Amino acid sequence: MKALVIGAGMMGSALAYDLARSSGVEKVYLADIDFDRAESAAKTIGANVTPVKLDVNSHDDVVYIMEQADVVCGATSYNHNLLLTKAAIETGKHFCDLGGNMDVVYKQMELNEKAKAADVLIIPNCGLAPGLAAILGAGGAKHFDVVDEIHLRVGGLPQHPVPPLNYQIVFSVEGLVNEYLEPAEVIRNGTPQKVSSMEDLEEMDFPQPFGKVEAFNTSGGVSTLTNMFNGKVKTLDYKTIRYKGHCERFKTLLDLGFASSEPLMVGTSVKTARELFQELLKKKLPSSGHDLILMRVWIQGTKNNERKTLTYEMIDYFDDKTRISSMMRTTSFPTSIIAQMIINGTIKERGVLPPEQCVPVQPLIEELKKRNIIIKENLK
């Protein structure tokens, strides 16, 4: 098996790392518009990784490099995912991406019949959330005769929080602000709705040293679950986990207009308040240091006329040995596993399907366990 990873940033380099260390993977091409970055990452990873210079806006170049691989993983901006999907269908290659924008995902899903005709599988929205959390929610629901509620809670946090926001940059600031600003999709009282992000604050308990944390609505994490379970569940929601106090402090800044689209003069140039705010966050928030991921997914329903709750829980830490962050591990490693599942036949479907519609839960959990990403399962 030969794999192509497009994008040599944090997530792309972790994807290439896992693929290169997986049995059955003969070669990994790591492509980026910045060849130096691709080359540096390839040298760090070691054997079986070949750096490639690639501008994803050059269709002919994308097609050429895709033709060298059996499966392609997109780890660049979600703005490129539709173009890459079309190129994958054209070249007859399977494709996975990290998603992050549902408008793009739905446009990809419109190419379902073309992907089937090309005998390929396109899986957008792989990763952590969207991705792993939604896979657990959809897969866990299959344990029940009747499903009433599905709840997803995920958070990337610093191991050593620093006031006032108690947060460090574990993925793009632009993505963070987008999650906090855009409306969140939920199902309430059996009806799909859109609700405001950074609302519906709740308290959660995790084992020490975490104790009590908070969770609140954010956009994007449910992927297509609200469509899948429309008319089938009473309640479905996704919330982001943070240390206590983060929501109130960050929301105050948003309420004051720090992330508005209002144009502002900065010297001789015009920028929006949101652009300036994002630049300030990049400068002021730590972007290094040991991180961790907290995740809890629970499904409530009825099995054999008994009321049951199935819970999946994961606490994952920065890997000191490999120097790979927990966010990189829990986003990129599931995507690598999914790409390999397509090639080895574990996933047989064709078309354009988000992972919650085609990725089997237990094989994914077992593969993650091999990478010391442990998901505990409890049914009671």
What do these coordinates show?
By secondary structure, the chain is α/β, with parallel strands linked by helices. The protein has two domains: 124 residues, NAD(P)-binding Rossmann-like Domain (Rossmann fold), CATH 3.40.50; 196 residues, 2-Layer Sandwich (Dihydrodipicolinate Reductase, domain 2), CATH 3.30.360. It is 35% helix and 29% strand. A seven-stranded parallel β-sheet has the order 3-2-1-4-5-6-17, sandwiched between helices. Strands 10-11-12-7-15-16-18 form a seven-stranded mixed β-sheet. It is globular. The N and C termini lie far apart (41 Å).
User: Helices and strands: which structural class?
Assistant: alpha/beta
Task: Please count the helical segments.
Answer: 13
What order do the strands of the largest sheet run in, or round the barrel if closed? 3-2-1-4-5-6-17
Could you tell me the radius of gyration in angstroms?
20 Å
Instruction: Give the biggest sheet.
Output: 7 strands, parallel
CATH class of the largest domain: Alpha Beta
Helix content: 25-40%
The counted number of beta strands is: 18
CATH topology of the largest domain: Dihydrodipicolinate Reductase, domain 2
Give the overall average pLDDT: 95
Low-pLDDT residue intervals, each spanning 5 or more residues: none
